[in-house]
Amino acid sequence: MTLKKHHKIMIGSFSSFLIILLISNSVFIYLLYGQLQLSYNKIESDINNLKIENQRRFNEITDSLLQTKEDITIIETGLQSVDIQISSIGKEFNELKASVSSDFSGIVEDAIKSVVTIKTNVGQGTGFIIADEGYIATNYHVVEGASSAGVYTYEGKTHSVSLIGYDSTMDVALLKINADYPRLKLADSDDIIQAEKVIAIGNPYGLSFSVSEGIVSAIHREGPNGLNIYIQTTAELNSGNSGGPLINKNGKVIGMNNFKLGNSEGLGFALESNYVKSVVNEIATQTLGQGLI
To answer: Catalytic site residues?
Structure first.
């Protein structure tokens, strides 16, 4: 069947319309895709920028926290330093009081709790806690020949006592009571300074826990054993002072009071602390299997 002319025109027009429509749709789709791609790229760029910004802020916060931690550490170190300085100032103040104003009251108050009176059936003397668990150092002649003895502490308590061992040449004995009292610390007697102020705590003529003050007159004096290991002091030492501590301005024992020359005053002698330590440890090692100090 042959198409008429107007039919051909209609079919041609419709085909042209379809082609135009397809082209228009293609252009629209292309433009829409392009718009979507631009939007996607912008969103992706915004996300990346946001990530970068967040990372920057995170780094800033981390740096700030690290700086804060460092500042806290510096502050803590500073506070510790202040505490040390305050403690040092307090110690120096006590030493200054002891050396300038001769006020040993604070030192005596602490030290006297570690000093004991020793009474036996043949005499009496003094001792001091030299190690934990009730170990006492004194002169051997204080307990030599005794068949019974008792130890009396500053607060008025009485304790039975046992003899751990002794060195008769050095005139040192190690005793023990079944009680625990604070010990006195030994100073390094190599650091003793001539003319430094000291105190002696003891039991002169039965006057328990008496304190006398003096200075170090000399060191390395010769004793009855022929050894140059004694401190000469002006602190008064009388019968009953034997075995007690000679204490410096730091509250440490620099010697064990031992003897004086005749009836003279101001001529007392104390075994230097380094030898006290050595003899006590030797006695402890021989009897207990180990040193104490």
So the answer is: 141, 171, 242
